[in-house]
UniProtKB/TrEMBL annotation:
Stretches of the chain forming a coiled coil according to its record: none
CDD domains: VL_LC_FACS_like (cd05907)
Catalysed conversion reaction: a long-chain fatty acid + ATP + CoA = a long-chain fatty acyl-CoA + AMP + diphosphate
Keyword Kinase recorded: no
Keywords: ATP-binding, Ligase, Nucleotide-binding
Residues covered by the AMP-dependent synthetase/ligase domain: 16-417
Record has Oxidoreductase as a keyword: no
Name used for this protein in its record: Long-chain fatty acid--CoA ligase
Source organism superkingdom: Bacteria
Listed GO MF terms: ligase activity
């Protein structure tokens, strides 16, 4: 482990410790070292940001809005706000103006720091209930916003060192607005002590290597990205490679060769598709060598999952074969990974089994914003497929009679911002956080997540089912299925809306096909995939009919939250005609539509 001071009581103190310990190490970079910022330069930027905020009227406890893609300036501004004793509030850049206005008004943000590309949407947000006192464009001049030079004004009478030293462990580190699948977002208030407590608990489980490399590509408005990259960078001195477009993450992985990776399963699904395509393109003896190596990996993983000893001979043969498997991981930038953590959506066990066989140290975890991102996690060397792992040290966990998971720990949220009634409903008088997730706990204390309490399907015959698990099975059956939404509540059978991945369709469907011929080819592939998924599902869970949707569902849109969670009520309303047609049609044919 890295020698990291464990006594810091605030993220500001941790940042100062790190910047003094490794001033010339690289803190922040972009693809191909186009931009490189050392810890000394990072600290200078933090000072300038804090001084600029004070010069423009920001005082302790004030909220500072941040709306950026993943870029070095985000980290500088967010950390600078903390040093000014302000509370950074990061906004998803995919949100429409009215939702942005609601969040910023609810948080009380008056100073907003953004990029030139987002200035127009923030000006549009001001046509609603929110007004900015100061709007800053951090990269390029933009009409209606201050430039970076105009913002970074030296503030007379501001004592930078006294400011950050005055930050308390109980001060807010951020207000993180959960994206929500219904209603307005909820502002989760997280204190410095909660963030640091969660970081140290995760470190005790995963450890850390000297000068670790990480790619930052998930939205910084989400607590998981902050707790996996931004905050541990401050504590441990990571080198963060900033990826401004999640669609370009593979190039960044290859460029960075990260030690730690965290993502919902969709990234790993795409990486698996790429690896399998590379294997399929290999011929002759090389193909046989890879197939044999992967077979050894599966044999080893399956023994470990059964709790059986791995024979010495198998272990030796697998170690010898690892060179071929490591090359496959290297092709997608994963060959230096110490921990590959996934969660925040159902994880098909076969996906992790594949990567474990390759030798990737894959782990599944679970958590929520209200618990500072991570609550349970499998341990390195002790991964159990289908399980979200054991509670983190310091995290107590129990189940209600209906299976709802309750959590209690020192790093729960302080409250929901401006929502005292909802806070009281969520954290009871004994300090237990009611998560809304249904789960199980086995004899070893390992947690498995069934589904959201409010999203369970109860069909017309009274059978309870998890739509999320069925959807994960559909997506795992073929990379062609980008999204799936299962419907079946109070219905005689399950149907699904299936969204096609256009990139994968371009690979799997012959390029000369167009029009109806192309649609027929895609339909045939999806039909095969649904049939394959149904073989893995109980009879009552199986998909009887599906509607193929040829347009994308985008994060932050009608169908998906910014964190890629299905907005089920909105989907049901938008596609009501498609859904009713599947139940009204007595035939076995599949319906098709394009989103309009």
């Amino acid at each position: 482990m890295t020698d990291v001071p464990s006594t810091a009581s605030s993220l500001c103190e941790a940042f100062q410790n790190t910047s003094l310990r490794s001033p010339d190490s690289v803190a922040l970079r972009t693809l191909g070292d186009a931009q490189v910022i050392t810890w000394r330069q990072y600290a200078e930027g933090v000072r300038r940001t804090a001084e600029g905020l004070h010069a423009h009227g920001v005082r302790p406890g004030d909220r500072v809005g941040v709306m950026m893609v993943n870029r070095p300036e985000f980290h500088i501004v967010d950390t600078g706000a903390l040093h000014a004793r302000a509370v950074p509030v990061s906004i998803y850049n995919s949100l429409p103006p009215e939702q942005i206005a609601w969040i910023l008004d609810d948080a009380g943000v008056e100073v907003m720091i953004t990029e030139a590309r987002f200035v127009p949407v923030l000006l549009a947000a001001q046509e609603h209930r929110w007004r900015a006192r100061v709007l800053v464009s951090i990269d390029q001049p933009a009409e209606g916003a201050l430039t970076r030079d105009q913002f970074e004004t030296v503030s007379t009478g501001f004592d930078f060192d006294a400011s950050w030293r005055a930050v308390s462990s109980t001060d807010l580190a951020t207000i993180s607005y959960t994206s929500g699948t219904t209603g307005n977002p909820k502002g989760v208030e997280l204190e410095h002590r909660a963030v640091l407590g969660n970081l140290r608990a995760v470190e005790s489980v995963l450890g850390t290597v000297p000068h670790p490399r990480v790619v930052s590509f998930l939205p910084a408005a989400h607590v998981a990205e902050r707790v996996f990259s931004h905050y541990p960078s401050i504590l441990h001195g990571y080198t963060l490679t900033c990826c401004p477009d999640p669609a370009d993450v593979v190039r960044h992985l290859i460029d960075t060769r990260p030690h730690y990776v965290f993502s919902p399963p969709r990234l790993f699904e795409k990486l698996r598709t790429g690896i399998e395509a590379a294997v399929a393109a290999t011929a002759g003896d090389d193909r046989k060598t890879i197939d044999d190596a992967l077979a050894l990996g599966y044999e080893k993983v399956d023994l470990e999952q059964r709790g059986a000893a791995v024979p010495a001979g198998l272990a030796v043969r697998y170690d010898q074969a690892r060179i071929h498997l490591t090359r496959l991981l290297g092709a997608v930038g994963l060959d230096h990974v110490q921990v590959a953590l996934t969660g925040s959506a159902p994880v098909n066990p076969d996906l992790l089994r594949f990567f474990l066989a390759l030798g990737l140290p894959g782990l599944e975890g679970w958590g929520l914003s209200e618990a500072c991102a991570f609550a349970t996690m499998n341990r390195p060397g002790s991964m159990r497929l289908g399980s979200a792992g054991l509670p983190l040290p310091g995290m107590a966990i129990r189940l209600l009679d209906d299976g709802e998971i309750l959590l209690r720990s020192p790093w729960l949220m302080k409250r929901y911002h401006n929502r005292p009634e909802l806070t009281a409903e969520t954290i009871d008088s004994e300090g237990w956080l009611h998560t809304g997730d249904i789960g199980t706990i086995d004899d070893e204390g390992r947690v498995a997540i069934v589904d959201r309490k409010k999203e369970l399907i109860i069909n017309a015959f009274g059978k309870n089912m998890s739509p999320a698990n069925i959807e994960a099975t559909l997506k795992d059956a073929s990379p062609l299925i980008a999204q799936a939404c299962v419907i079946g509540d109070n219905r005689p059978y399950n149907v699904a809306l299936v969204v096609v991945d256009s990139v994968i369709a371009g690979v799997e469907v012959r390029p000369h096909l167009s029009g109806q011929d192309r649609l027929d080819a895609i339909t045939a592939l999806v039909t095969e995939s649904v049939a394959r998924a149904n073989k893995s599902l109980a009879r009552v869970e199986q998909i009887k009919k599906f509607t193929l949707l040829l347009d994308e569902w985008l994060p932050g849109g009608v169908e998906l939250s910014p964190t890629m969670k299905l907005r089920r009520k909105a989907i049901s309303a938008r596609y009501q005609a498609c859904i009713e047609a599947m139940y009204a049609d007595a035939s076995d044919r599949t319906a098709f539509t394009e989103r309009g």
